[in-house]
Amino acid sequence: MAGGALPAVGAVGEDFGGKLTFSVYITCIVAASCGLIFGYDIGISGGVTTMESFLRRFFPSVLRKMSQSKQNEYCMYDSQLLTSFTSSLYIAGLIGSLGASRVTRALGRRVSMLLGGATFLVGATINGAAVNVAMLIVGRILLGIGVGFTNQATPLYLAEMAPPKWRGAFISGFQFFLSVGVAAANLINYGTAKIHGWGWRLSLGLAAVPALIMTTGTLLVPDTASSLIQRGKIDEARRALQRVRGSGADVEAELQCLTEETMRSEAVEKPFRDIFKRRYRPQLVMSIAIPLLQQLTGINVVAFYAPVLFRSVGFGSDSSLMAAVVLCLVNLGSVLVSTYFVDRYGRKVLFMEGGVQMILFLTAVACVLGVKIGSSGTSPLSKGDGVLVLVLMCAYAAGFGWSWGPLCWLIPSEIFPLEIRPAGQSISVAANFAVTFVLAQVFLSMLCHFKYGIFLFYAGFIAISTVFVAIFLPETKGVPLEAMDRVWEKHWYWRRFVV
Ligand code: BGC
Question: What pLDDT, on a 0 to 100 scale, did the predictor assign at position 87?
Answer without folding.
Answer: 80
